[in-house]
Model the fold of this input.
Amino acid sequence: MRKRIEEEGFAYCGKIVVEDGSTRLAYEKVASFSELLLNWYQEKGRKLPWREDSSFYHVYLSEIMLQQTRVEAVKRYYERFLKVLPTLKDLASSKEDTVMKLWQGLGYYSRARNLQKGARYILENNLSCNTYPELINVPGIGDYTAKAILSIVYKQPYIAVDGNLIRIYARLHCSPYDAKSKEIKERCNKSFLSLLGKDSSSFNQALMDLGELVCLPNASPKCEECPLKQFCQSHREKIQEKYPRSKKKSPKKEIHKTVFLLSYQGKYLIRKRPNRGLLASLYEFYNVDEHFNLSEAKNYLEENDFSVCAIHKDKKGKHVFTHLLWKMSGFRVELKDYPRNCGFLLATKEELERLYSIPSAFKTYLDEILN
Done:
């Protein structure tokens, strides 16, 4: 009898004496997983600009921007992007350079190109974008983004499984699977889908917020603030820091670069990178994959037909990519002549700031020019 009552969502809380003097077992209704999560979200959930208008374009744009990027970093880019390109049609019809300039500093620039390709694909094919088969074929939209859009915009019963949800799931169940494995993703999806109520939008966003605000990575979860701690096996056993399991990351490959800030008659030389590969189609300062001292840098330039008027050391810089680390040494170089037929553009400071998308890998040197 007691087992059946507990299975129906009641918890034993002791014995009570009734009017006739006999004792009875007392039970109280336990709030469900979903109720606790959604109540917490209503009180503690983040106020984010894309949650104020959960129309397709706004959620689509925000989800692409949020891929591998912190929420705080995305906020100002999201708002700036919408001021210039307020609709899907505006995005589809804009120039690529406009999109890339708006994306400058956000990183992972292939997202911006795919965002525009996706907008054009949606309009050209007159898609409603409210089914999984439609969305999964849009350039730049994968399984997670499709399910996030369907759950948030159209309130469809999907779980958008990302690193936050996997971390929560792994700690709730002390999952032995690696955080990157197919097995844990499938189990995570199945588990949360079984707990999903009618409000899939709030449920998904509540889990995202819980992972961002409370169930933090490594050894720093705020378990006492967690609305789900009564369900959490790793919390009960005080082994939260052991989950999720993950393989040790291999060290990043280091590349030493020399960056030349070439100038001629008060303008700076930049060039467009190839349209494939790392930082594709973005603008850069002249650079080579070698480390030079001052005299070596001058000799290198002159050997490559640059007429050097003056050269000075500039700052050192570094930039971390997913699998690479650039370590850079910079030089300011004033040229006697403009090297024609070599793929360079001349740009003023104002044009560098306003027109050309220069990736954050070169931010140290761009800031030197602009400031």
In short: The first strand starts at residue 10 and ends at 17.
